[in-house]
Structure formats: structure tokens, C-alpha cells
Write a structure and sequence with these properties.
alpha+beta, 6-stranded mixed sheet, 49% helix
Length: 774
Amino acid sequence: MDRRKVNLFYGSLFHDIGKGIMRSTGERRKHPLVGADYLKKFLTELSAKDQEEILCCLKYHHAKAVLDVKQPVKDGLYYITYIADNIASGTDRRLTDEEVDQKWDSKTPLHDIFNRFGKNKTNNYISPNKLKFDKLNDIDAILPTSTRSDFNHSYYIDGVLHFGHGLQAMSFTEEYMQSALNLLEASMDFMPSSTDMEEVADISLFDHMKLTAAFAMAIQQYLEDRKITDYRSELFLHDGNFYKKKTFLMAGIKLTGLENFIYTITSKGAHKQLRSRSFYAKMISEWFIDCVLKDLELTRANVIYNAGGQAYLLIGNTVGNREVLKETQAEFNEFLLQNYGLSMSILMGVTEFSSSQVMKKNSFDTYNVIFSDIDEVISKQERHRLSVSQINQLNHAGKKRGRECVVCHSVDNVDANEHKCQLCMKLESFSHDIQNENYFKVDGNSEGLPIGPGAYLSVTTEESIKEGNESGWIYAKNQLVTGLRQQTYLWFSDYSEVKSNDFSSYAKREWTKNEAHGKTLGIRRMAALRVDVDDLYAGFLAGFAHQGEGKYTTISRYATVSRKISSFFNVYLNELLKSYGEKVTVIYSGGDDVFMIGAWDDILDTLTVMDSYFKEWTAGKMSFSAGVYLYHDKIPINIVARQTKELLEAAKLAGKDRVALFTKDNIFTLEEFENDINNHKLSIIRRFFDSQESHGKSFIYKLLTLIRERSEKDRISFARLAYFLSRLEEQTPKDEKPNFINFKREMINWFNTKKEIEKAELSLVLYIYETRED
């Protein structure tokens, strides 16, 4: 990469660090100068020219500062940073932007991004009092709260100290660009970008500076392509015209076939590689993005959204960039076709847009055009995935014959002894590494897992990296680290309560065994849970259209919302499950969905916990629906996945915020399940049956029979229930009769309403499941 591009990246990425530093010291100077003075001491290894180019981006990214430059240069990189800062902010910036008078509230904490999302305004904050830089925050510490806790000097000092410590270990070169992003996120993700009391402080310093760097690098590509060298004229003196030009491309990427690749495997050996297939598929997507960015000479700063095999990249509108996208897509699709046939492929849609389209005073319709154009192209590609040459290639190859892999049914490279293909054997051995290792590398060593043309994935160690033994690209799992050739971190929900992928232990329920009689408590079944956010795409586009006549509709808020939702499933779900000690295993977690298996009762507990936290996470403005499938541990995972998906789809068809429990007949809102079934009816049933000895399981089964015979049209079923309960009341011992009368009253009341008796039926079934002894 050209040195000036590297300078532009660092200058734009760090352009606003002076805000954090100024708030940590309390000094009353302009933050561009504070930031430049601070950064200068870390640039000593660079030439004087490179130092000056980076520092000028910090000093001169506001209009007044640009006007005050005594000897302006026409091709100064700071002009690019200046206009990129404007675009990332969504508006032409004020001439002064300093926290030196009473209109600035330098102690304001970061406001919740969902305050201006949806129709109803909320006033929540992200508390700064438990920030951690060496590991993930506890989710409870960063849930939005209506109570404001000042972001005082000490919190800024902690962040700035961490930032400075990271800078000392860095070199300002191309190889450390991703590390710079990681460091900035770890240090300034909870610091508000703006503390103007007249603005909404819901964008973090990290998000704003990252987006500024993205726009800056894309603008540089556009200018270079158009051979524009007078930046002062183009970007400053005539910036109004520049805002209207189609400077940018938004590239949408979708890896199709993820689900089939992960779940379409048979029972033998499936459990040994289920999670590794999920991780492997994620890595193919991540590596493709990194290959595209490398060829485009861009960084992860230009990734606006990335989760669940889908991504959006913000790049310069050039012919060369379009060609790079096409060529890289074609290379990867050829790789996927050769290795996995038609099971997976990469789709891509591209559309151009101007700065003015993503700045304030535009309705969400403007954004909708950008993303709908991309979707239209991707949908067309999905219908015509293969080129003519690829179709001919497949036709001439003929039908493959030979022994099938017992796991995935492939007939390619099947080992005669193991009866498994080479990929499945590698995935099995790799599964243990995924759960226990934190560092991975991609290089040309063919002993690893193939994840792209000439690229292979394998495990490495922190020691090997520090000793300089690795020549490939390094990925760290679930931690923000810096270092040479460090690629993006991998947020990956890999929580599992069992070791060595022994999922059958969830069904055996040994933790419930009564040592006296040797029996376990609870039905010996597993359950699968599938969750998917409701109307994410529509909400994503229209979420900020309602308040303030749409003035909060900015690309920075879109990026922040998508990152926050993705972080719930990919980052904090691990910590959430760990804190509750749930006996479950996460198989796959995307940006808005999750699939997990486990002990059936812990799966139900996990569902209610996730629902509660997700609603808090999004201020109650987003919801998810779910499907829960109960199954014997011998059932192949492909069937389990399919059945669970069908239940989820049935739940979504019934409306938002729904769960289908075990069958498509048991669909309730999540609130109904948690409050009315789990906390109310099931509690009443437990109290009654646990406090008496006269009526056992036969009584429950008779109740279930009467409930299932109930008919709205035939009132005789109501009389049968009343008669049955009255007869039993007569036979009930005197000391148990008050409890029975109360229970009888509840049952009759529930029986009178179709929805209530359906809830009571499920509650009775759950009680049978939890009290069964084997």
C-alpha cells in the first residue's frame, strides 16, 4: 500500500482522539491540537514528512482550522479527513466543535443507540463505571439504564492509558492497521463522540472515527481514479458539489448455503464436527472479506456490517474496485464449487451513492434505495448462481461414483479405513481446537483446512506469535488484541457446558441422579433452540425514520445498531450463558440468530433469559421469535435442525415475539410463556402436586385427556371436567381438601377459555417432564 494511504488511514482513524484525552485531563484547548500533541510522541519512527501528514489530519479536520492554515497545500490529506468527518457525522460540521464553554457536557455518558430508534423515545445511558480493557464486560454492567452515571475524568484516564500503552507496542505501518482498529475499539468504544448538550450522544468515539477512516479511504480511491489532485478545491472550496457526486459504492456480500453445510450431516461422527463446521463456515466468510479488502487496499474500517454470512462494505466508486469485487467473487466461487459442489456460494450486489444521500435531512427512503438495489442484484444472482462454463463443467464431469463419506455423503477423497472424506476428518480433529484455542492463522500450509484459493486455516499459539514464528495472517477469538499482521478479531459464541462435544450427556441428566435409588429426575430428552430477530431488515432501514422527522437517520447510527445487535449474539451470549451455568451448547450464532442444543429444561431457561436480556439490550424496541424442538439424543442433527427451523417459521408466521414449543400447536408470545405458563400456571401445578399424595400422575393424564377432548361447540366436555374434579374432591383426604378446592377452581377457570387451557395443558406436560424418574 502506498505510504500516503497508510498516513491517511492513521490520520483519519485517530483524528478525534483529542476528545478523549482532553476529557481525561480537563484542559481547555481545542481537541484537534490536544490529539496531535499526544500522538506526536508515538510517531518518532516515521519520517518527518509522514509524521506531518498524519498529524495534519488531526489538527485540520474542522473548517475553521483549515481556513487558518498559513501555507495550504492543494493535495493535503487533511482535506480528505475534513470532508470524511463531515460525512461520517451526517452533516456539515459547525465551525467550532470544542468543549470549552457551558453548552458542552463533558461528563455525559454514552447514550443508548436505541433512544431514537422506533416510534417511542427513551432516555437510557450506557454506564461507564465498569469498563474493562483486558476482557469482555459483564453484560449486566453495560445494559442500558435510565440512571445516568457521569463519565468523569477517571474513566477517560483509564481509556487513554490503555490506548497509549497499545500505541507503544505498535508501528504505524500497513501491517498494524487492523491492530489500530482493535486498540481504538477496546479503548474508546464507550466514550461518546459528541458531548454537545443540543445533540444526542449515542455514537461512540470509536464508531465515529472508524467510519471517518472508512469514508476517507474510499474518497482517496475516488480522487485517485478521477486523477483529481487539487483536494483543496474539490473537497473544501467546492465541497457542496462534491457531496452530490456518486463517490461511493456499497457492496453487499452474502455467503449462501451456510445452513445446509453446517447441518446436513448424518448421525455417525456428526457430533464431533458440528461446531467446527459452524466455525469453519464463518471463517470462509471472514477470509473472503479480508481478501477483498486486501485487494482493494482497505481495512475492516470499511466493513459497515458483518454477521451471519452477510456483510456490507463501503468503498470508492471506481472501475478498478468493481473489477476487484468481480474477480475475487469468481475466484472464491470456483474454489467453493471445486471443494463443496453447489452447497455454498458467494453472492454480491453493488450500488453507487453520494455523500448527500447518507447525510442529515434525508428520509429513510434514501437509505432504502441503496440497500434495496443491492438486494435486487443478490436475489438475481441467487437465481442464476452458475455461469455457462461452470454448468458445462459440471455436466461433463458426470455422476461421481464410489464409497460415500459416512458423515456428509461426499464421494471425494474418502478414506478407505475411516470411511470419511478428508474434510470431515480434518473437521473432527479441528473441533477440539475451536473450543479450546484462541489463536488461528491462515497461510499456505495445505495441512490446514482449505478456506480459500491457496489459503488454509490452522491453530497457532500466543507464544508462537510473540516469538515471530508465524508468517500468515493471525486471528484472535473473542478478544481484542494487537500485533503484526493481526486480522480482525473473531467474536464467536462457542459456549458449551459439556466437554469433548459429548452432547448425549444432556439427555442422560446425571447431575439430577438421586444416589439413594440411582434414578435421574426429568425426562431423558434433549431440546434444540433456534432464535431469529423479528423483522430485522425492515427495522434496520426504518428504525430511525419515526422520531424528529427522520433527522436521526444517519449511516453512523445504522452501523452502530447493527454492531450492537450482532454483539449480543456473537459476543455477550457467551458471558450470559456462562453466568447462568446453563447446560447448553451453542452450535451457531450469527448476527441476528442462534441455534443451540442442550438439556431440555435448561434450553427453556435459556430462552427466557435471552428474551429478557435482549429486550433490555434493545430498550424493548426489538424482539425475536423462537422454535424449541424436543428430541431423543439419537436423532441425527440434520433432522433436529430442520424440525427446529420449521417450528421457528411457524412461530414467526403467527406474529412477532413468539415461540413454538415442541409442536406447531403450542405457539405463544414469549411473555405468555414466561409469565403465564412458566411463572404462573406451572407454579400452581407444582405447588398442588408437590403438597399432596392422594392424586398422582394418573390424575394428570386424565386431566390431559379431558383437555384434549375439549370442544368449544360441545359444552358436554365442560361438564365432564367438572364432574371428574367433583368426584375426586369427595375422595380427597380432609387435610388435603383446601388445596384441592383451590386447584379445582383454577382448572375450571382455565378450562373456560381456549387460550388459557392450552397454556394449562402445556404446563401439565412440562410438570410431567420435570418430575419423571428414570
